[in-house]
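Following up on my earlier thread - several people asked me to post the actual chain instead of describing it. Fair enough. Here it is, all 286 residues.
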Amino acid sequence: MIRPQLPLNALRAFEAAARHQNFTRAALELCVSQAALSHQIRALEDRLGVSLFNRLPRGVALTDEGARLYPVLNEAFDRIAVSLDRFVGGHFREVLGVGVVGTFATGWLLPRLADFNARHPDIELRIQTHNNRIDLAGEGLDMAIRFGDGDWQGHVCTPVLDAPFAPLCAPAVARALRQPRDLANTILLRSYRSDEWPRWLQAAGVPELEARGPVFDSSLTLASAAAAGAGVALLPLKMFEQDLAHGRLIQPFAQTLALGRYWLTRLRSRAESDAARRFREWLEAP
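Reply from S.P.:
Thanks for posting it. Predicted structure:
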């Protein structure tokens, strides 16, 4: 069927009637009379050569043909509505899907999100948190913020923030920690990166201590466990500044260790969109 000849009014009438399963409610939604809506649907049925509704004494029900047509039109009209909603102030509102490691999301991004929205009202961020393992192509994301050394094959990696690590714990636990050697008498909460505690213990001058304790897949759960008094966690200080400021977590030792940094990444095979460029520049701004 040639597109200029698509019976759009009749298709809208059918979609609304099928969604409501009622001609009267559909007519009210479209601001037409029930007779006009019935006429449009009948004209569509004549054009297609099939019945789309079974007319019943107390309403209507879709025929098999109508049931096949309805989801196609429903999805099409929904997609049109979403696209039209993305026009704001005469500009098209671009959607940017960003995967964000949970620690960075809560510790840095969310407190600053209002600033980004104020500066870029035409960009709709869709944030998906992860635990540092993410597949941009598989999850349909444009970019990802992750922690590491910046060596992700096939990706363009932009450094965002340095994040030195240090032991953090609850105040009650901290009172028993005078020097790094005292860690031998407490539980060391660990992440899935097994080299973190050994490297910090080496830097602190106590390489003989062995890190023993439960393993977590997220710094957020590590921090929650530490704040609950379950042990001492090695955490990125900048991500937990609020917890430190409010005394929920304590840093018992000054020794820090650089284990990596936060990076903004995107697939090298995809060109950087305007929205992605502006998000990157906002992250890079001092």
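The first helix runs from residue 8 to 20. That should answer part of your original question.
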